[in-house]
Amino acid sequence: MKDVFARLSAEGVSVWLDGVGADRLDEGGVGRLVAAGRVGGATSVASGPARGERLAALAARGATPEEAVRELSVRDLRRACDLLLPVHERTRGRDGLVSADLDPRHARDAAATVAEARALRRTVGRPNLLVKIPATVEGLEAIAACLAEGIGVDATLIFSPERHRQVAAAFLDGLERARAAGQDLAAIASVASFSLAPLDAAVDGHLARSGSPEARAMAGRTALACARLAYETYEAGLAAPRWRALSALGARPQRLVFTATRVPEPGYRDTLYVEELVAPGVVIALPEAVLDAVADHGEVCGDRVRRHYADARRILGYLPWFGVSRVAVAESLEAAGLAARVREREAVFEAVGRELDVCVRSLALA
């Protein structure tokens, strides 16, 4: 039987790794996944607490936790980019990309986001780097501005087809500004990351409170419906004159990345989001646990998106019957996602700060 990852590739699906820790880079786990052809990109590289010579040297220089995290992050981003650079070159920039987090505290400040993206691209210095920009209203301008400067962008925290359409419009705006500025459009990469599991978890919670059999029958269907309608926008965009003009100049489309693919309920098939969102040109980002599940028992049954547009609209049309406002859900998830990222970043600063203190005390005793 053909390998499941080969079957996904044959259907036009790219699999990226969702979450790369420094430990996996150190032990070579990411390199082995890339070499085996299981993953062709990475949606985040996380630098947690680090011991050893790197941290001791930072402590000796008197680095603050923020400075230490920044330096460790840059080092790990470079390593991840270098591991995936052969994929980037082989696919001519289609895959082999690595997404890097920016400071989530800037998510409502377009100017600060662009300034940080500029600095990170310059410091990392790798052609396959993308900067992650939350698709808030303010983030839409930051997305366009970064693309206008030739900075690759991963637009994140997308929870509705409507917001995805706005991201797609910002992408086109950015590329048109890049063209006017004389940028090489072929060198600019962008993806739009549509988040799945949090959307199902939030809507399923509303449906559970309704308690009716009809509401229970709707559980676990919202994220797939929204993702399929986002793909419909992507597909329609490829046929639009505005995109065709940019494509003729070498521009590459802004691919959809389906992320947050660990199912929210244990009763759901753990490979659900992979199997049900197969379509040409998509990226599916998987944490290692889901990657292993796909390798073990994943099934690929051809395109599962394009023939389901009408059904997706029907499903979303039922939600108001159960008192579910998709607008309110998306706004709540965006706010919660930003808050979670701020907490995670602060936790990393605190952990690295503790490690620096240990190193400083050790140096004092030496």
From TrEMBL:
Subcellular location: Cytoplasm
Active-site residues per Swiss-Prot or TrEMBL entry: K132
UniProt keyword ATP-binding present: no
SUPFAM superfamilies tied to this protein: Aldolase
Protein's UniProt name: Transaldolase
Parts forming coiled coils: none
EC number, UniProt record: 2.2.1.2
Example GO molecular function: transaldolase activity
Catalytic activity: D-sedoheptulose 7-phosphate + D-glyceraldehyde 3-phosphate = D-erythrose 4-phosphate + beta-D-fructose 6-phosphate
Top EC class of this enzyme: transferase
Domain of life (superkingdom): Bacteria
Pathway membership, UniProt: Carbohydrate degradation; pentose phosphate pathway; D-glyceraldehyde 3-phosphate and beta-D-fructose 6-phosphate from D-ribose 5-phosphate and D-xylulose 5-phosphate (non-oxidative stage): step 2/3
Gene name in the database record: tal
Its biological purpose: Transaldolase is important for the balance of metabolites in the pentose-phosphate pathway.
Pfam families xrefs: TAL_FSA (PF00923)
Keyword Transferase tagged: yes
HAMAP family: Transaldolase_2
Family named by the database record: Belongs to the transaldolase family. Type 2 subfamily.
Alphabetized InterPro entries for the sequence: Aldolase_TIM, TAL/FSA, Transaldolase_2
Keywords: Cytoplasm, Pentose shunt, Schiff base, Transferase
Source organism of the structure: Streptomyces melanogenes
